[in-house]
Automatic annotation (TrEMBL):
Keywords recorded for this protein, A-Z: Cell cycle, Cell division, Cell membrane, Membrane, Transmembrane, Transmembrane helix
Subcellular location: Cell membrane
Biological process, per Gene Ontology: cell division
Native source species: Jeotgalibaca dankookensis
Role, per record: Part of the ABC transporter FtsEX involved in asymmetric cellular division facilitating the initiation of sporulation.
Family according to the record: Belongs to the ABC-4 integral membrane protein family. FtsX subfamily.
GO CC annotations, alphabetized: plasma membrane
The name this protein goes by in its record: Cell division protein FtsX
Gene name of this polypeptide: ftsX
Transmembrane segments: 21-46, 170-195, 216-245, 265-289
Length: 295
């Protein structure tokens, strides 16, 4: 296609947007409202996925050492624990350190159990390569000598993994559904704008204009509508997410959990929304005008 012809198509598209002002505003609004819903659910899903991964990685196996074990016994137990398949890392915490954690969590009244009155155990904390392996690792560790007991959350941890998997599946289904709804809404809104110009299309056909010549201005117009409609929710989401990230950071400080950093996440999401808006706008225009080009 000649550049002059393409330039004419762009001029016609912009003139049409201005001439059909209210219909253009309606189409842009439909795109913006739909994409802000899609973008919001994408933000929620990806952050739930991030927090779920943090929770999964925070699940560990705690091996309590028998009070009768001496230094050599503890060393031997450590070597046996390291040999267990799927154990990624191992840390040691003394009974005094465990008491300090307890005091930090529940208050100074637990100071009464200091020194020889400390009833707690030394603990080895095992992290697995994959969180779902904690149950199997816990069973192997429990069978070793000088192990008083083993904790890993049991059925609670397994339910957690199942819940996380369910949330991920539901989130994916919701986003897919929203994208399909977006195509439907955008296509129908643009179809209304094209229907209002059916006489114009018929005149172009009567004077011998080819279908491709008639289609291009509408395709460009749909892309522009999608672009403008995507820039609005992109700007809103960037502003809101940076605000919510700073707010969430205050509550999650000191924990092992964190939201996705705004840079570059939210900007990649913005580019994605702009691309989706342009593509959906173009597809919506093509689908909508096809019926008017049939003989």
């Amino acid at each position: 296609m000649k550049l002059r012809t393409m330039g004419r198509h762009f001029r016609d598209s912009f003139k049409s947007l201005v001439r059909n002002g209210w219909m253009s505003v309606a189409a842009i609004s439909a795109v913006a409202m739909t994409l802000i819903l899609v973008g919001s659910f994408v933000v929620i899903l990806l952050n739930v996925n991030k927090l779920a991964s943090d929770v999964e990685n925070d699940v560990s196996v705690r091996v309590f050492i028998d009070l009768a074990a001496d230094k050599e016994n503890k060393k031997s137990l450590k070597e046996e624990l390291e040999k267990i398949e799927n154990v990624e890392s191992l840390t040691f915490s003394t009974r005094d350190e465990e008491l300090d954690k307890l005091i930090g969590s529940y208050g100074s009244e637990f100071n009464l159990f200091g020194g020889d009155d400390n009833p707690l155990h030394d603990v080895y904390t095992l992290n697995t390569e994959v969180p779902e392996q904690t149950g199997a690792v816990a069973k192997e560790a429990e069978a070793l000598e000088y192990v008083a007991k083993v904790e890993y959350g049991g059925t609670t941890a397994e339910k957690l993994f199942e819940t996380i998997a369910t949330l991920r599946t539901i989130g994916t289904v919701i986003i897919t559904g929203l994208l399909l709804i977006a195509i439907f809404l955008i296509s129908n809104t643009i179809r209304i704008t094209i229907f209002s110009r059916s006489t114009e299309i018929e005149i172009m056909r009567l004077v011998g204009a080819k279908n491709s010549y008639i289609r291009w201005p509408f395709l460009i117009e749909g892309a522009i509508i999608g672009l403008i409609g995507a820039l609005i929710p992109t700007a809103i989401l960037i502003f809101m997410y940076r605000f919510l990230f700073d707010l969430g950071a205050q509550y999650l400080v000191g924990s092992n959990f964190a939201l996705l950093s705004p840079t570059p996440f939210i900007y990649y999401l913005g580019l994605g929304l702009v691309g989706v808006g342009v593509i959906l706008g173009s597809i919506g225009s093509v689908l909508s005008i096809t019926r008017f080009l049939k003989v």
